[in-house]
Amino acid sequence: MVTAQPHFEKEKKLKLGARIRKIRMFRNITQKELGRRLGYGESSADVRIAQYESGQRTPKQETLIRIAEILEVDVRNFLSPGIATMDELMETLFWMDEENRGLFHLFLLNDSESEIVGITMRDKKTMSYLQEWMGKKQKLGDGRITEEEYLEWKLHWPENKRKTEYKTV
C-alpha cells in the first residue's frame, strides 16, 4: 500500500509557513517582532516564527488567529487548506463536479492558434466573485491600483466577513 500522507502534510505546513512569511514581510514585521507580539520570550521569539515559516512547527489555531490579528489579515488566509498547485486545483474541480454535475460548463474558445479551454460555473455567487476579481485585476493592469493594494484586497477578501467569524477567547 502506497501513501502520500506524510509528504502531503509536510507540503501543507510549508504552504502555511510561506503564507505567514509573505504576509509578515509585506507588513514589514521581523520574525522577532511577530514572535514578541505573540508573547514568546526575547531569545526564542524569532526562532519560533522561523520554525512556523519553515514548516518545522505548526502553530495552534489560537496562535494562527493571533498572527492574523497582528498581521491585519483575515484568519482564513491561514485556516483554509488552500490550493497551491494545478494538480490540487484540478482535484478540487473534479470533486466539485462529482457533487454537482451541472455546476461546470467546459468549452473551447475560438482561437485558431491554440486550443484554449474555457470554464464557466452555473453559480451566481461564484460568478460574482470572479467578476469582482476581474475588476481588481483590470484596475491593477491599467494602474488604478498598486500591487500592494491588490494584495491587500486579496488578504481581506471578502470584505464583509473580515474578522467576524473567528475571534480569540
Strand content: 5-15%
The description of the largest β-sheet is:
2 strands, antiparallel
Low-confidence stretches: 1-8, 160-169
Shape: elongated
Label this structure with key terms:
single chain; mainly alpha; two-stranded antiparallel sheet
Tell me what the structure shows.
The structure is a single chain. It is built from 8 helices and 2 strands. The protein has 169 residues and is mainly alpha-helical. Strands 1-2 form a two-stranded antiparallel ribbon. Helix 1 (5-26) crosses helix 3 and helix 2 (31-37) packs across helix 3. The longest helix is centred in the N-terminal third of the chain and has 22 residues, at 5-26. It is elongated. Residues 1-8 and 160-169 have low confidence and may be disordered.
Topology:
Layout: H1 5-26, H2 31-37, H3 45-54, H4 61-71, H5 76-79, H6 86-99, E1 104-108, E2 117-121, H7 124-141, H8 147-156
Antiparallel strand pairs: 1-2
Q: In a few lines, what is going on in this structure?
A:
By secondary structure, the protein is mainly alpha-helical. Helix content is 57%, strand content 6%.
